[in-house]
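Private note to self, pasted from the team thread so I don't lose it. Backbone tokens:
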């Protein structure tokens, strides 16, 4: 665990030093959301209805932007070989790297989302559901993305292939997350949708590192 924690701190520090890795997903998230009122008009009821879906779709795509770099740099410089040969289980190393990825992509999106919700005229009672759905859903996106990044490791045009692989797997997260926010706006409980998101997160924590580690080992052979 100490080695995994050091790996997490190393990856986190590396991504923070390379400012573009941190700024690009946030900038995309903000700009893509801002364009929606410009396209559909400023009508408050329409914006409020579209807000959960728009915020979640742009958050999903912003998370996808940084996925191709999750393992690729370490693969190119030989660091993945060292991780695979180290005493630390590769599955734990994958989980540490995914956590660092989420901390520099998903976490900033959670912080910025309420401001975008305000701009999109999101219902006042829906902010808590939006934040909880992002808190549960964005780590799941990173875990699913890690599997896709590992499977496409070393492939030509890996970024395009990665998007094709993971976007269909993102659909359940998108459906339950937007349903949770929409349910609150309609006066219904968001708890069932959030519990499904939580169970998907737990399942992702258990399975995604194992599958990603197996794909990495295959790519290194």
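Design output:
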């Amino acid at each position: 665990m100490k080695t995994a924690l050091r790996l997490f701190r190393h990856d986190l520090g590396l991504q923070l030093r390379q400012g573009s890795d941190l700024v690009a997903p946030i900038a995309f998230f903000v700009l893509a959301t801002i364009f929606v009122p410009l396209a559909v008009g400023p009508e408050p009821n329409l914006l409020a209805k579209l807000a959960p879906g728009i915020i979640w779709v742009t958050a999903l795509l912003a998370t996808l932007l940084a996925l191709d770099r999750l393992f690729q740099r370490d693969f190119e410089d030989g660091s993945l070989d060292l991780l695979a040969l180290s005493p630390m289980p590769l599955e734990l190393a994958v989980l540490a790297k995914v956590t660092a990825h989420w901390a520099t992509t998903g976490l900033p999106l959670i912080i910025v989302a309420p401001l975008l919700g305000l701009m999109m005229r999101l219902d006042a009672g829906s902010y808590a559901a939006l934040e909880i759905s992002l808190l549960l859903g964005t780590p799941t996106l990173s875990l699913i993305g890690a599997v896709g990044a590992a499977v496409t490791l070393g492939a030509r045009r890996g970024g395009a292939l990665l998007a094709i692989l993971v976007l269909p797997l993102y659909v359940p997260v998108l459906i339950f997350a937007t349903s949770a926010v929409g349910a609150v706006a309609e006066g219904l409980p968001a708890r069932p949708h959030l519990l499904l998101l939580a169970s998907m997160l737990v399942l992702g924590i258990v399975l995604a590192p194992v599958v990603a580690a197996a794909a990495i080992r295959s790519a290194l052979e």
